[in-house]
Design goal:
Elements: E1 5-7, E2 10-12, E3 16-18, E4 40-42, E5 59-62, E6 65-68, H1 77-88, E7 94-99, H2 104-113, E8 121-125, H3 142-155, E9 160-163, H4 171-180, E10 185-188, E11 192-195, E12 197-198, E13 203-204, E14 210-214, H5 219-232, E15 237-240, H6 246-255, E16 259-262, H7 265-268, H8 272-286
Parallel strand pairs: 3-16, 4-7, 7-8, 8-9, 9-10, 10-15, 15-16
Antiparallel strand pairs: 1-2, 5-6, 6-14, 11-14, 12-13
Helix pairs in contact: 2-3, 3-4, 4-5, 5-6, 6-8
Length: 300
């Protein structure tokens, strides 16, 4: 039975990875999860300089998931390289670093700093606000998405995965723009913008008013978007959004995803990723599937 997949020339032992922002850089979960068992560890977003994130409260539970307005709080690239990458280099798993920034120059700065490190791939978070263009997210503007994809592909030493925002009219178009401008893969979906109001206090629950919704409730939307993206491009698609079980992961794979990422589920069950891996293996055994790639895009 073969569970390995290949993304942009990088081989993963299985198609299950962690979703950025839900697993730290692996250190926090290493006492629960054998990181060597994972297809890949995707780190929390890393910026050129330290980011404090948004004011609190910035987490809220909602039906079928959660809202977060963390604001990509992180210690910056220098601390990340010294602390997180130093830890991850001792793990036998693929390492994917999520990159964020508020300007094109900030993204490029992070990519250049990672050029000579033991990082296998870069995932570019284009849901960040472009402060030079009225704070609209890079991933919501087709021209901005094309520009940043092309610029980062020219600078990056590692393959780049563009992480797409679902808050767009045509996800297939955005995926194709990434492919046309050199992206090696796309991942989706990032969180859906949502809001929660406390009716007793008559105020917003989150200090930021809005936040990104994740969890099981977004899964049908995510599966649909992954299917549409996979139909539009020939590069690998990484699916995520509400994956809790192996059955969830297999839906994404059958819709066209080469690999999947487990996110919100890590907060309620630190063993979620390994359970999904074991569930996929059991499904393959029970259904006489020799290679997981037989399942990729089998639904037309």
């Amino acid at each position: 039975m073969n569970t390995s997949v290949v993304i942009a020339g990088v081989k993963l032992k299985n198609p299950v990875m962690t979703a950025s922002g839900t697993f730290g850089s692996g250190m926090e979960y290493s006492e629960f999860v054998d990181l060597n068992r994972l297809g890949a560890v995707v780190t929390k977003g890393v910026s050129l300089t330290p980011w404090e994130g948004n004011p609190t409260p910035r987490i809220a539970e909602v039906y079928g998931g959660m809202l977060n307005a963390i604001g990509l709080q992180n210690p910056g690239i220098d601390t990340f390289i010294k602390r997180d990458l130093e830890f991850l280099k001792n793990c036998d798993t693929t390492v994917i670093v999520n990159v964020c920034g508020k300007t094109m120059e900030e993204y490029i700065g992070v990519v250049e700093r990672l050029a000579d490190t033991d990082v296998d791939m870069l995932e570019i978070n284009v849901s960040c606000p472009n402060v030079k263009e009225g704070a609209i997210a890079f991933g919501q503007n087709p021209e901005a998405l094309a520009k940043i994809t092309k610029a980062l592909k020219e600078k990056a030493k590692q393959p780049i995965i563009m992480k797409l925002s679902p808050n767009v009219t045509d996800i297939a178009l955005m995926a194709k723009i990434c492919e046309d401008n050199g992206a090696d893969a796309v991942s989706l979906i990032n969180t859906i913008t949502g809001m929660k109001i406390d009716i007793n206090r008559r105020s917003f629950v989150l200090a930021n008013r809005t936040g990104g919704m994740s969890g099981p409730a977004v899964k049908p939307v995510a599966v649909r978007m992954v299917y549409q993206a996979a139909q539009a491009v020939s590069i690998p698609v990484i699916g995520m959004g509400g994956i809790v079980t192996a059955e969830d992961a297999l839906e994404f794979i059958m819709a066209g995803a080469t690999a999947v990422a487990v996110g919100c589920a890590n907060f309620t069950d630190p063993y979620a990723t390994v359970k999904v891996i074991e569930g996929i293996e059991k499904y393959m055994t029970d259904n006489n599937v020799e290679d997981v790639k037989e399942l990729t895009g089998c639904v037309r």
